[in-house]
Amino acid sequence: MTDAIVWPETWIAAELRARYADLGSLDDAALARHYEDFGRREGRIASPAAQREGLIALVPADASILEIGPFCQPVLTGPNVRYLDVLDAASLRARGEAIGIDTSRTPETIHFTNGLGAAAGQGFDILFSSHNLEHQPDLIGHLKEAAAALALGGVYVLIVPDRRYCFDHFLPDLTVARVLDAHLEARTVHTAQSVIEHRAFTCHNDTLRHWHGDHGPEPDGMDGRIDYALNELKAANGGYVDVHAWQFTPQSFESVMTTLNRLGWSPFRPLRVYDTAYGRNEFTAVLTLDAAA
Fold first, then answer.
1. What is the pTM of this model?
2. Degrees (nearest 5) of the Cα angle 237, 242, 248?
3. How far, in Å, CA of 245 to CA of 256, rounded?
4. What is the pLDDT of residues 200-232, one digit of tens each?
């Protein structure tokens, strides 16, 4: 099934010419130089799959799909889509109502509520995740469970926040060392560091302000939010606190995923990692299983 999907290249000369009149006269070599020197930084759209709507449009309606973490607003729908979340449908709806969001699109059924490991052997063509990967305490463990849920030739399709254009702006990119540390500890909950960073050292979440270089003051931890985080950790008493464990850019994501695969820690390798489009706080990616996985 997924072998028939053509995932567009991350950089397509014709796409840039069609979208931007000022680039129409440049040949391919000049376009490549412009994109490396300016276009990527400007958020020029170099591939139709660089935006979530373009990526989603490539997913076949007849593919067997597992969407991870749909909450009350699934991205994908249809008879071949299954859902995994931490709560059942009724509980998700109640949670959505409690925090004041639209619950009208909550899935009728959440098929898996006992973790991604429960989907092992299901043979899905596609796993799909939107703004979920950054919440995984053990990223390598998550990737291994994702691989076990896929059919041979299956892919993991992702929409991932770009830390540069969201509240994570001042937090550092993930590293291979930190990812391995989390896996060797077999983490199931977030560290105190992740909770403190998320609560006390994040900034505003206005995407366009970030694109225009206005990130606001860099948090210094002197505004009481550290105490808030510590109290939250104390109240959780070792339980799960939902925060971002990892911060990504397209470049750091591709680098770490490639390294983990080459070292044998991840069954996935990056097939496509698309650059973040102007005005967006997310990038898109497709991971593919190695033949031996």
1. 0.95
2. 135
3. 15
4. 999 999 999 999 999 999 999 999 999 999 999
